[in-house]
Design goal:
Layout (H helix, E strand, L loop, with lengths): L1 E4 L14 H9 L10 H13 L4 E6 L4 H7 L3 E8 L14 E3 L7 H9 L4 E5 L3 H9 L3 H8 L14 H7 L7 E5 L5 H10 L2 E4 L1 H7 L6 H6 L3 E4 L12 H11 L5 H8 L1 H11 L1
Parallel strand pairs: 1-2, 2-3, 3-4, 5-6, 6-7, 7-8
The structure holds zinc ion (ZN).
Zinc ion binds next to loops.
């Protein structure tokens, strides 16, 4: 299973090694028509994924086109629609398949609403230093980004917490939560992930491209946190073949057996996804 993918996003050059915001700006604000998400791209990518012998995906998108693409390609799994709106809650997150984008881009009430549905949901978390800075102090590049986007932040107070602790303060962490990235999550935050029974999806090639960092995979394994693997999109990974993520992980963590990675791709992934059916 490719447990985190954005099928609708095309392949396009993007800036690496500088962090999330410079990466985002490099393709989104450049106005490059090749970087535009589309239904056609979602269809082509879903077919490519299925040709990589992947049988299931957990997709995250904005256009609402990935579910059809997933089904047409014969892939199992599910497709979520991201909800944003940092300064205003999306009243009971309007779509059935809604899922919050990230702690710095989605209102706390929206995150609570989605988690309260009692079904699997997913969110990008702790990918980048700027996210930490924003939640700790309320400042930094994310503040400027949200203000430039016209967000009204007068009612918002920074929680002074790490991204994982912030989500926990909302009461949303539990077995339905799939936390994507956790690139910078360490120590007692890892303990908390284990305690709450969340699943973590790691996307190593995307992390290496955007931040040049890898999550504390051994720390997750040692604590018994369920770990699954995704490619993220073609804007941060060279292809959508999740087996190539495993190749990178094997090189970075040579002490981990092939069987352990297989468990991430299969058993752990299905253990989370099967909750969708329940
Ligand atoms: Zn993503």
């Amino acid at each position: 299973m490719n447990a985190h993918v954005h099928l609708e996003l095309p392949a396009c050059e993007s800036l690496g090694g500088q962090g999330f915001l410079p990466w985002l700006r490099s393709w989104r604000d450049a106005g490059d028509p090749r970087a535009k998400p589309s239904a056609a791209t979602a269809r082509a990518n879903a077919l490519a994924v299925s040709a990589f012998e992947t049988t299931a995906v957990v997709d995250v998108g904005n256009l609402g086109v990935s579910e059809a693409a997933r089904q047409e390609a014969g892939l199992e799994g599910c497709a979520f629609r991201e909800v944003f709106g940092f300064d205003e809650p999306m009243a009971a997150a309007p779509f059935e398949d809604a899922t919050p984008h990230a702690p710095y881009s989605t209102h706390a009430d929206t995150i609570r609403d989605v988690a309260a549905r009692g079904r699997p949901w997913t969110i990008h978390v702790d990918e980048d230093e700027a996210e930490r800075e924003f939640l700790f102090s309320g400042g930094g590049a994310w503040l400027n980004m949200l203000l430039a986007a016209g967000r009204d932040l007068r009612g918002w107070r920074p929680p002074g917490l790490t991204p994982v602790r912030y989500l926990d303060s909302l009461g949303v962490l539990g077995p339905n939560a799939l936390l994507v990235h956790c690139t910078l999550t360490r120590d007692t935050d890892l303990d908390l992930l284990a305690e709450r029974g969340v699943t973590v999806c790691i996307c190593p090639r995307s992390n290496l491209h955007i931040t040049r960092r890898l999550p504390d995979v051994m720390g997750l394994f040692d604590r018994g946190v369920r770990v699954v693997i995704g490619t993220d999109s073609l804007l941060s990974a060279p292809d959508l073949d999740v087996r190539n993520e495993v190749a990178v992980l094997q090189e970075a963590f040579p002490a981990v057996s092939g069987d352990r990675w297989d468990r991430c791709l299969y058993d752990d992934a299905w253990a989370w996804l099967d909750r969708s059916a329940s």
